[in-house]
Amino acid sequence: MSDRDIPVNVLCFQVFTNGGEQLLSRAWLLDPMRAQISAAASTDDQGEPWNGEFYCSYGHGESRSWTEAVNFGFICGGGGAWYSKTLQLLNPGDRVWVKIPGSGFVGVGRVAGRAQAALTFKVKTSDGEVPVLDMVKQGSCHREYSNDSERCEYFVPIQWLQTVPLEKAVHEIGLFGNQNTVCKPTTPKWRFTVERLKEKFPNFE
Questions:
Q1: What is the CATH number of the domain that holds 127?
Q2: pLDDT on residue 63
Q3: DSSP structure class, residue 31
Q4: Residue 60 lies inside a defined structural domain of this protein
């Protein structure tokens, strides 16, 4: 067994004060690559074979911009291994459906390359390839962690097949959702979601 095959668990403690008493709580933090497997399957649904379609939760906000992701062709995640490591699940040619938490599904695209750290990832412009951090202006992309391989932002190049602006995100009751940046859902809800999204994004091929 290689080091990569060994699950990494971290035990964290937190102390609370209640009057004159002190209370101790603990929580296990699991390796993000392994945790996404169990998190992607709902406890309410009977599991089924993965349908080959990837799910992405794209955190639009202060850290990153959906408009820039569309314009420059990428998805990304960072701030810690939990948010970035699952991007390594993606390989060139994979199809990924992107959801912005709180808004809905906003696009579908083909993976065009492997995940790269912010300092090495470049985007195509009219002047040629340019470092991504020189181009993105609407989000921090965790620039403060650029030299930290654990917490920096990681980018995956995407060839967008169809996207919609945030205000037109597809949000319906019953569609799949998950907190992992990328996952391979094995629940019937994901199959239903993809079938529905193919109607909403007819250019998915």
A1: 3.10.590
A2: 87
A3: P
A4: yes
